[in-house]
């Protein structure tokens, strides 16, 4: 369920969930769970983005970006999705949101996204499994905590700066 939500949101790094799945369920089952979550999460995200974009003010739909994306033929979009999905560290949400702006249908998005995610998730699983097996757990936890604290610091700093900007 967590994989599905992460896939739909598109901004949670999938390698974190792949690592959790592999640690919890083993390499084979964890990889299959990660793949299923990413694929079905992308489909859910595609329809959520498409719904959200349908509610956008009509003036935005007149922009050059919108017109460019919306005029792309389905075949071009299909191959673009497939190629971007093959790269395991391209933000999934960006690819999904971009595809939702185009006229591609859900089935073609599902096929392109799935075909692209299969090798990407296997590569990601291999890398994550290698890290899990070779890096001591204490180092993994220390890095995880450090990344979390750094992200928390950046977030709090941005809130403080934004708050100061409102008071002036």
From TrEMBL:
Chain ranges passing through the membrane: 32-53, 74-101, 107-131, 138-156
Keywords on record: Cell membrane, Membrane, Transmembrane, Transmembrane helix
* Compartments, record wording: Cell membrane
Q: Which InterPro entries match?
A: TMEM64, VTT_dom
One term under GO cellular component: plasma membrane
Q: Does the keyword Nucleotide-binding apply?
A: no
Q: Where in this chain does the record put each VTT domain?
A: 12-129
* Membrane topology, from the record: Multi-pass membrane protein
Recorded family membership: Belongs to the TVP38/TMEM64 family.
Protein name according to UniProt: TVP38/TMEM64 family membrane protein
Organism this protein belongs to? Planococcus glaciei
